[in-house]
Amino acid sequence: IVLTQSPGTLSLSPGERATLSCRASRRVNSNNLAWYQQKPGQAPRLLIYDASSRATGIPDRFSGSGSATDFTLTISRLEPEDFAVYYCQQYGSSPRTFGQGTNVEIK
Amino acid sequence: EVQLVESGGVVVQPGGSLRLSCAASGFTFKDYTIHWVRQAPGKGLEWVSLISWDGTSPYHADSVKGRFTISRDNGKNSLHLQMNSLKTEDTAFYYCVKDQGAYGVYSPFDAWGQGTLVTVSS
């Protein structure tokens, strides 16, 4: 399954809302879709799994939605620490694949 | 606290071999599928290999099939990646990654190591 994320770069200010898209080339089994955040020099961190469940310790300003082939990550109000690269991943079939990433940068 | 610590990344010539290791702690290692995920400098994430909790089902991405072999030692809580016939395009940070769910259920990755850098260059 090929995952295509858009946009490639999102330029926003702190306090604004961020909407990131992830589109799959075919249906993602059981909505097994995750979102990860990666900051420079760090390993990725799990934010959302099963399309809409927040991982342990993730603030509720992060939310996931969608099903089948279209998924969205929303950050309701950007905090300074949220500026990072975000990847979607499907884990419902092998090989497990990632999107190419969306860079959320400070405007 | 779950910890995954990779080691073994070095500079190696094209065509060479390398063995990466991952030491796991803070969870029942033998119950979880573990993966290798790589990231070329400045690029995105690429899943490389997985091995099931009991070691009976290794699986590799097409890009490394026939060259890389994943293995595990549940008695020593360790994971390995034997990398042969290395190519320049294998240059990347290699992360040891744990499934969220036990016993091979399809699940996301809830713990990552800090990564080890493999550089393939003449």
Characterise this structure.
Chain A is mainly β. Chain A is built from no helices and eleven strands. In chain A, the strands form two sheets. In chain A, strands 2, 4, 5, 6, 9, 10 and 11 form a seven-stranded mixed β-sheet that branches. A four-stranded antiparallel β-sheet of chain A has the order 1-3-8-7, with no helix packed on it. The relative contact order of chain A is 0.34. The mean pLDDT of chain A is 97. Chain B has 122 residues and is mostly beta strands. Chain B is built from no helices and eleven strands. Chain B has strands at 3-7, 11-12, 18-25, 34-39, 45-51, 58-60, 68-73, 78-83, 92-99, 109-112, 116-120. In chain B, strands 2, 4, 5, 6, 9, 10 and 11 form a seven-stranded mixed β-sheet that branches. In chain B, strands 1-3-8-7 form a four-stranded antiparallel β-sheet, with no helix packed on it. Chain B is globular and about 40 Å long. The N and C termini of chain B lie far apart (40 Å). The mean pLDDT of chain B is 96. The chains are: A mainly beta (107), B mainly beta (122). The interface between A and B is medium-sized, with 25 and 20 residues.
Short description:
The complex is a heterodimer of chains A (107) and B (122). Chain A is mainly β. Chain A has strands at residues 3-6, 9-12, 18-24, 33-38, 45-49, 53-54, 62-67, 70-75, 85-90, 97-98, 102-106.
Helix-strand layout with pairing:
The complex is a heterodimer of chains A (107) and B (122).
Chain A: E1 3-6, E2 9-12, E3 18-24, E4 33-38, E5 45-49, E6 53-54, E7 62-67, E8 70-75, E9 85-90, E10 97-98, E11 102-106
Parallel strand pairs in A: 2-11
Antiparallel strand pairs in A: 1-3, 3-8, 4-5, 4-9, 5-6, 7-8, 9-10, 9-11
Chain B: E1 3-7, E2 11-12, E3 18-25, E4 34-39, E5 45-51, E6 58-60, E7 68-73, E8 78-83, E9 92-99, E10 109-112, E11 116-120
Parallel strand pairs in B: 2-11
Antiparallel strand pairs in B: 1-3, 3-8, 4-5, 4-9, 5-6, 7-8, 9-10, 9-11
